[in-house]
Design a protein that fits this description.
- By secondary structure, the chain is of the alpha+beta class.
- The protein has a domain of 100 residues: HIT-like (HIT family, subunit A, 2-Layer Sandwich).
- Helix content is 28%, strand content 16%.
- The longest helix is centred in the last third of the chain and has 17 residues.
Length: 153
């Protein structure tokens, strides 16, 4: 079974994950080929998107859920996820472009709602373990509420 590699999120589920991005990619391709949009049962972000895991919501619609991070790295730290499982940026297909554009737009809306739109905010996504992607489900971090240094990391 495919699972994600969320360290802190797997602790929430009290389980250990051994994910393979290649397996996630193959499952995604299979689902698209046969017209299925199955949620990855062990992916914490899929479970959050389905409303199975309680979170402090910042925004939601039929495609996207935005919620406050459990381990915030800034005064405002919100995760913005698609409800549909997409492992990451490198697994995107051309038909995913409108969804990713919507994720970015939601980031801007949430920044305005949380009053960091004018002072400044950062929208970040990580791609792969070396970049710090700990959950193999596409997500953007909205960070703000303090001066953010450069370069990051």
């Amino acid at each position: 079974m495919i699972s994600c590699t969320g360290r802190s999120f797997c602790a929430l589920l009290r389980r250990s994950c051994q994910a393979s991005p290649l397996e996630d990619y193959r499952q995604l391709r299979y689902n698209r080929r046969y017209g299925e949009d199955k949620r990855m049962e062990d992916c914490i972000f899929c479970r959050i998107g389905a409303g199975q895991v309680p979170v402090r919501l910042a925004y939601q619609d039929e495609q996207v859920v935005a919620f406050h991070d459990l381990n915030p790295q800034a005064p405002v730290h919100v995760l913005i996820i698609p409800r549909r499982h997409l492992p990451g940026v490198k697994e995107m297909a051309p038909e995913d472009e409108p969804l990713v554009g919507h994720l970015l737009r939601v980031g801007s809306l949430v920044a305005q709602q949380l009053e960091v739109g004018e002072s400044g905010f950062r929208l970040v996504t990580n791609s792969g373990p070396d970049a710090g992607q700990s959950v193999m489900h596409l997500h953007f971090h909205l960070l703000g509420g303090r001066p953010l240094g450069w370069p990051p990391g």
